[in-house]
Amino acid sequence: MSDDTTTLLLYLGAAWLAGSLIGLERSFHGRPAGFRTHALVCAASALLMLLSTHQAQWLDPSLPMSSIRADPTRMSQDIMTGIGFLGAGVIFKEGLTVHGLTTAASIWMTSVLGILYGVGFLLPAVVATAATLLTLSLFRRVETLIPTELFADHELCYPIDAVADEDQVRALIARHGCKVKTMSYRLSENGQLFHYSMVLQTHGHKNLARLAATLRQSQTIVEYRLTPSGG
């Protein structure tokens, strides 16, 4: 096996390993794009860059070297364009919550790592791989310790003859450390049910849990929905 072939296999193997490690973290947390996706993305990016930077090995040897136009930067741009469609496929919105942003970012980062490994830029590629794994694993714990502003989609449903006054609803929510940002109203069941639809703002999941516990004990509320935007 020639030294050049060994180098190519080293670059490709390193890209596959880096993508696999990042994918394992995503799979562990139950994300839709996990081990196999990240491993394939990183290896494919590396293969395309190797294809671009080693054209002399697969083009017709009778062609003069002056006819070879290697431009790895154009290949990297095309790779990132394609990865954009793949990343968009894992992002979806549910109520106020947007899911999949971190996974989409990890796919994008994995493709960049594949490009770095493919051109043999090993030191920054290894450092970036370690930084990515650190960001995905350790920073998750750091986020839980930082006070953050949370939002929740909230709906209360009352029978039409026992509707709580809006001031009472706002006071109830305020007692649980939440603030009403927006409120709308609607009727259903041929005017038999009245709904308050709100977006709540708070600074802790425990406030939402306390509010839900209070609502469960209500004798007049027909049903309620409380959907945090985090997670």
UniProtKB/TrEMBL annotation:
Transmembrane regions listed in the UniProt entry: 6-25, 37-56, 115-139
Record's keyword terms, sorted: Cell inner membrane, Cell membrane, Membrane, Transmembrane, Transmembrane helix
Pfam families membership: MgtC (PF02308)
MgtC/SapB/SrpB/YhiD N-terminal domain mapped to chain residues: 12-144
Subcellular location as annotated: Cell inner membrane; Cell membrane
Entry superkingdom: Bacteria
Principal localisation: membrane
Membrane topology classification: Multi-pass membrane protein
Protein family according to the UniProt entry: Belongs to the MgtC/SapB family.
Listed name of the protein: Protein MgtC
Organism, as annotated: Halomonas piscis
